[in-house]
Design a protein that fits this description.
Layout (H helix, E strand, L loop, with lengths): L2 E2 L21 E2 L1 H13 L2 H20 L3 H22 L8 H39 L2 H7 L4 H49 L7 H21 L3 H21 L8
Antiparallel strand pairs: 1-2
Length: 257
């Protein structure tokens, strides 16, 4: 089945003429799906996301002294702008450089996250092991420093609490890296596959939207705890990203309707 490019209605199978507007020019199912998918990346919502993410990077550079983090963060709006301008191109299809660049950034971020998780895990294990190490020397320390056993016990308990907290944080980071960034990675790759094949391979977009809403809620809480304009813009960007991901996830092929 082919469709009219003027009004989108099915063409007459015999005459290939549009029964609604009389148009003859056609658009096959593959091109129509790609154009529908492409329209999400040239929408006003995408433009707004590009502007806000750029503003967030500029504000974070002004408010933070961490230059390397700001530079890495700046790569995100760059990939978004490249994707937006590629989608605005009038040519058939769309350049996937921006989306592929985003996929690479996510992969790099996941690797860095695993390194942080590994280092934090080693630190947590050391901290948890310290109390048992300290307790074995309390009796000896009591001989050298009479009356200091309570102080040693307090230090030992404090280190144990810090170690347990480090393990909890490590587990939370691992969950975020596996499920949140893993979901985004699969969603990005599914978009690339959908553009390449012209058929609907979209997946994990709604899961990504759900995760972004959860992250956005936590970021909103942090905004009330420590307000900054950079964080405010980032929170808005996160919620817009969630809405856009859900919108892309609802893109369907004509034969699925």
């Amino acid at each position: 089945m082919r469709f009219c490019t003027y009004c989108g209605q099915p063409l007459d199978p015999v005459t290939q003429e549009c029964p609604v507007c009389g148009g003859y020019k056609t658009l096959d199912l593959t091109d129509r799906f790609i154009d529908s998918l492409k329209s999400n990346f040239r929408s006003f919502l995408m433009l707004l996301l590009c502007v806000l993410s750029s503003a967030s990077v500029l504000l974070s550079m002004l408010e933070s002294d961490n230059l390397w983090f700001s530079i890495f963060k700046a790569l995100i709006p760059i990939s978004l702008w490249v994707t937006y301008f590629a989608a605005c191109s009038s040519k058939q299809g769309m350049s996937l450089f921006g989306i592929r660049f985003t996929s690479v950034l996510i992969t790099i971020l996941r690797v860095l996250m695993w390194i942080v998780i590994a280092v934090l895990l080693v630190l947590a294990i050391i901290l948890v092991a310290v109390p048992s190490f300290v307790s074995s020397f309390v009796s000896y320390a009591e001989l050298l420093y009479p009356g200091m056993s309570d102080t040693f016990a307090l230090i030992s308990d404090s280190v144990l609490v810090i170690g347990v907290l480090a393990i909890v944080i490590d587990v939370l980071l691992a969950i975020v890296n596996i499920f949140f960034f893993g979901c985004i990675s699969k969603a990005t790759k599914s978009i690339i596959d959908s553009f390449k094949t012209g058929t609907n391979h979209l997946r994990k977009l709604k899961g990504t939207a759900a995760w972004l809403i959860i992250i956005g809620i936590f970021a909103l809480i942090m905004l009330f705890v420590n307000f900054s304009f950079g964080t405010l813009v980032s929170v808005i960007s996160i919620f817009i990203s969630a809405f856009l991901a859900g919108k892309i996830g609802n893109t369907t092929s004509v034969d699925e309707i």
